[in-house]
């Protein structure tokens, strides 16, 4: 199995995933709970946190709502 483009980790994807994970930890919720709050699948949230997803705008909004933050709070600097 090759390194498909949608699973290729990049610095931006990793930084975004790290922000998601940090905010999730700060809320004290599991990936499962975040997925439920975001109306996404748990494996999707997991792959976002690992930096494997080039996440769509709609999913950024969904995750920010699940984390009770602004989408801009998830953006890498």
Q: Which consecutive residue ranges, at least 5 long each, have pLDDT under 50?
A: none
CATH class: Mainly Alpha
The string of secondary-structure elements, in order, is HHHH
Count of individual helical segments: 4
Identify the CATH homologous superfamily: lambda repressor-like DNA-binding domains
What's the rounded overall pLDDT mean?
93
How many independent structural domains? 1
Q: Could you tell me the radius of gyration in angstroms?
A: 12 Å
**Given the C-alpha coordinates, what overall shape results?**
globular
The CATH architecture classification is Orthogonal Bundle
Alpha-carbon distance between the termini? Answer: 32 Å
The percentage of residues in β strands lies in under 5%
Count the strands? 0
| Sheet with most strands | none
The level of helicity is: 55-70%
CATH level 3 topology: 434 Repressor (Amino-terminal Domain)
Q: Report the oligomer.
A: single chain
Structural class: mainly alpha
Describe this structure as you would to a colleague.
The protein is mainly α and 77 residues long. It has a single domain, classed as 434 Repressor (Amino-terminal Domain). It is 56% helix and 0% strand. It is built from 4 helices and no strands. It has helices at 11-27, 31-38, 42-49, 57-66. Helix 2 (31-38) crosses helix 3. The chain is globular. The mean pLDDT is 93.
């Amino acid at each position: 199995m090759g390194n498909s483009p949608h699973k290729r980790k990049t610095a931006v994807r990793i930084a975004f995933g790290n922000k998601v994970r940090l905010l999730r930890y700060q809320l004290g919720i599991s990936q499962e709970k975040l997925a439920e709050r975001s109306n996404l699948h748990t494996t999707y949230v997991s792959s976002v946190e690992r930096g494997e997803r080039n996440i769509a705008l709609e999913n950024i909004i969904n995750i920010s709502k699940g984390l009770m933050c602004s989408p801009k709070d998830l953006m890498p600097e």
